[in-house]
Amino acid sequence: MFDDVNNEKDVDANNVGQPKVWTCTLLVAISVAVIGSSLQFGFQTGCMANTQGTLRDHFKDVSDTFMSLIISGVPIGGLFGGLSAGIIADKVGRKKCMMLNNVPVLIGTVLMSVAWNKYFFLIGRIFIGFGCGIATGVAPMYISEISPVSVKGAVGVSHQFMITFGILIAFVMSIKGALSSFSEYWHMYFAFPALPALYQLILLPLCPESPNWLYYNKEREDLARAALTKLRNSRSVADQEVDAMIKERTTATSSVMVSYKQLFSDRTLRLTLIIGLALQGAQQLSGVNAILNYGPDILKTAGLTNPDLGTGLLGGINVFMTFVSVPLMDKLGRRSLMLLGQGGMILSFIGLAIAQKIHNGSPDGSSWTAPVSVATVVTFIIFFAVGPGSIPWLIIAEIFTADARGKASSLCVGANWVCNLLVVLTYDQLNKALSPNTFFLYTGIVTFFFIFTIFFVPETKKKPVEQIVREIKTQAEKFPPTVF
Question: What integer pLDDT is reported at residue 95 of this predicted model?
Answer without folding.
Answer: 96
